[in-house]
Amino acid sequence: MTSIKTVSTEDIPPLDSYTEELIAELQKPVAKVSISADEKGEILALYRRADNENLTGPIISLFGRLLDLQREGKGCSDDFGISGDELRQLAVKHQQIDEHMVSVGGRVARALPIAGEANSRVEEYLAEKDQAAPSGIEKWEQIQENISRIKKELKMSDDDWNSFQGQIRHAIDSVSTLSKLIDLPKDVLESIARVTKSYRMRLTPYYTSLIMPGVINDPVMLQSVPTGEMIENAGIEIPPVAADHSPARLIDQFYPRVLTIKATNMCAMYCTHCLRLAHIGRKDHVYSREAYNEALDYIRNNEQVRDVLVTGGDAFVLPNSMLRWLLEELDKIDHVKIKRLGTRIPVTAPMRVDTELLDILEESSDKKPIRVVTQINTAQEITPVSRDAFRQLSKRTFTVLNQAVLLKGINDSRVKMWKLCETIQEAYVRPYYIFNCSYRNPQFSHFRVPLAVGRDIVESMYGNISGDAIPRYIATAGGKIPLHRSNVVRREGDDYILRKPWSGEEAEYPDADPEVYAEDLFAFNK
Ligand SMILES: *Cc1c(COP(=O)(O)O)cnc(C)c1O
Ligand code: SF4
Questions:
Q1: What is the distance between the alpha carbons of residues 385 and 345, in angstroms, rounded to a whole number?
Q2: Ligand nearest to the CA of 224
Q3: Which phi and psi (to 5°) does residue 239 adopt?
Q4: Which of 109, 125, 147, 222 is spaced 20 to 30 Å from 160 by Cα?
Q5: Which atom of ligand 2 is nearest to the CA of 313?
Q6: Residue 47 in contact with ligand 2 by CB distance below 6 A
Q7: What's the gap in Å between 255 CA and the centre of ligand 1?
Q8: Which residues, at least 6 apart from 208, have a Cβ–Cβ distance to it below 8 Å?
Q9: Ligand 1 pocket, residue 480 CB under 6 Å
C-alpha cells in the first residue's frame, strides 16, 4: 500500500507512550480487511483536514475514527494508505498546537474515554429529568391553562390574581371549592373533608394552578392538600424541641450566635409536612408590637447574637410596614450583623414580591446583609413567575437560600432532587439544606424517607452537578445535625484513604506531616 505522503523519520521527535501505544494499535493488521468506499473517502477527507488545518480537532477526529475502524476489525491505518510516520507527524503537530502540549494519545486513549465514562453517570438523569420531574417553566403552558380555569371558577379578576391580597382573599380552604378546581374522586374528597376538620388546609389559587390535572399523587398537591394519613398516623406528638429552647417570647434559640423570631403563625399556604404544625395552630393570629419588642429586647440584651432569622409561619405574610419596622429595629442593634427572612411565599404567592417589598429589603440589606431563606421541594414549583420573584430578591438582597424537605413520593429520588437543585440554581436560588422529615409529628410519618436513601441522593450529586448546587443533608433533633456520609474510609500509614462519591473509587491522600505542623510558623519567628 502506498503512502499518501512521504515524511522522513529523522524529523520526528519522540512521542509519549500513550501516543506510541495508540499508533501501534492503529497499525495492527486486522484479520480480514473490509473497508467500504464511503469509509475510505471519509478517512481520506479527515486526513486532508488534519494535514491542512492548524487545529487539533481534525487530528483527534482522524485518530478516533481510525481507532473505531481498527477495533471493528475493518482495517488498520495502512489499509487506508496512512503510514506510521504520517501518524507520528500528525501527533507531533497536535502536541505543538495544543496550549497545554497534550498528546494525541493522551487525549484519544485517556481523556476522551474518561470524559465518556463521566458522561455515562448523568445519562439516566438527562434522559429522565424532564419526564420524572418537570419544572413549572417546562409545564408553563399547562399551568397557564390551569390559571384561566381557576380564575374563571373563583371569579377572580386579573387584579385579584396579580395581587397578594387577591390571592389570600380567594385562598382555597374548603373541600367544596377544591373539588371545583381539581378533579378528585369522591372517596378522596371525603377523606380530605375528614382531615380538614382537624388540620388546616389553605392553598392560594396560584399554588393550586401548579397542580397538574390528571396526575395521581401530584407532588404539589401532596404538599398542600392534607390526606387521610394525617389522621390515621396521628398519635402522641413529641412536643416540639422549641419548648425547651424559647428563652423569650417569640424567640427560639439553639445556638449562641443565631436565633429565630417567630414573627407570625400565618402562611399563604399550609404545608402538609409542616414542622411547625403546633405553632401554626388552627387560627391566624396577629401579634402586637409589644410582643415583638419583648423579643427584640432579648436580642438587644444578648450581645453574642449576630444572626437573626425572622420566620413564622412565613415572614412575608407580615405587612410591609411591620417588616420595615422590624428590620429597622434589628439594624439599630450593633451586634446584629445578619438578618434572614424565612418565607415560602415566592413559590406559593409570588405576587407578594412587589417593588415596595423589594425596596424595603434592599434598603435594609444595604445596611447589613439580608438573606431570604425559602422552601422549594420540587422543580414544579419554579415557574417563570416565581423565578422572576427570586431573580429580583437575589438582586436586591445578599442571597436566596433553599431549605428543602426530603419527602416520600415528592423528591426522594436522585433524578427529582438533582433536578430540583439545578432548577432552583437556574432560578437564582442556592440549595442550602435538605431536611430529613421530622419524627416528632406522627401526622406525617408517611412522608418520611430512610436516612440511607437521603444519603445516597445527596452523595450522588458530588461530581455530577455543580458543587454550589449541592445542599447539606440535615436532621433536626434539638438543632441541626449533619447527616453526610463520610468519605474518609480509613488511615493507612501517613495516608488517608478517601472515597470518590461519584464512583466509589478509593484515592490515597497523604496527610499533613504532624511534625511539620507542630513546628513554629514559617521563618519570621525563627
Ligand atoms: C434553623 C435554625 C437556625 C439556623 O440555623 P443555620 O444552620 O444557621 O441556618 C437557628 N435557630 C433555630 C431555632 C433554627 O431552627
Ligand atoms: S411555609 Fe413553613 S411554616 Fe408555613 S406551613 Fe409550610 S412548612 Fe409550615
A1: 12
A2: 2
A3: -60, 145
A4: 222
A5: 3
A6: no
A7: 8
A8: 146, 150, 172, 178, 181, 182, 224
A9: yes
User: Which residue in 215, 179, 177, 156 sits closest to 349, CA to CA?
Assistant: 156
Buried b (16+ CB within 10 A) or exposed e, 462-500: eeebeeebbbebbbbeeeeeebeeebeeeeeeeebebbe
Residue to mutate, 274, 316, 373, ligand 2, most ligand atoms under 8 Å from C-beta: 274
Residue with grid cell 488517608, as numbered in its chain: 496
CA distance 254 to 169: 36
How far is residue 160's CA from residue 148's CA, in Å, rounded to a whole number?
A: 13
Distances (CA, A) of 515 to 255, 493, 494, 526: 36, 15, 12, 16
Phi, psi of 375 (to 5 degrees): -135, 110
- Is the distance from CB of 255 to CB of 479 less than 8 angstroms? yes
Which ligand is nearest to the Cα of residue 432, counting in written order? 1
Global pTM reads: 0.91
Residue 54 main-chain phi, psi, to 5 deg = -95, 55
Q: Check pocket membership of 313 for ligand 2, CB cut-off 6 A.
A: yes
Give, for ligand 1, the residue of 244, 250, 255 to mutate: max count of ligand atoms closer than 8 Å to Cβ. Answer: 255
Alpha helical stretches, state H, 112-257 = 112-132, 140-153, 158-162, 164-169, 175-181, 186-198, 205-208, 219-224, 229-232
- CA distances, 186 to each of 183, 191, 210, 214, 384 (Å): 9, 9, 22, 15, 33
Q: Could you give the CA distance from residue 105 to residue 60 in angstroms, rounded to a whole number?
A: 9
Instruction: Return phi, psi of residue 79, to 5°.
Output: -65, -20
Q: Which residues pair with 492 in a beta bridge?
A: 495
If you search the block for the grid coordinates 475502524, which residue do you land on? 69
Establish whether residue 266 lines the binding site of ligand 2, counting it when its CB lies within 6 angstroms of any ligand atom. no
- Could you tell me the end-to-end alpha-carbon distance of the chain, in angstroms, rounded to an integer? 72
Q: Ligand 2 within 6 A of 218 CB?
A: no
Residues 254-313: tens digit of each pLDDT? 999 999 999 999 999 999 998 666 666 667 888 999 999 999 999 999 999 999 999 988
Reading the block at residue 109, the C-alpha cell is 486513549
351-369 average pLDDT score: 98
Q: Which grid cell is 376?
A: 422549594
When pLDDT is cut at 50, 70 and 90, the band that residue 1 belongs to is very low
Ligand minimally distant from the alpha carbon of residue 471: 1
Residue whose C-alpha cell is 413564622: 312
- Give residue-wise pLDDT tens across range 108-158: 999 999 999 999 999 999 999 999 999 999 999 999 999 999 999 999 999
- Residues 345, 368: Cα–Cα separation, whole Å: 23
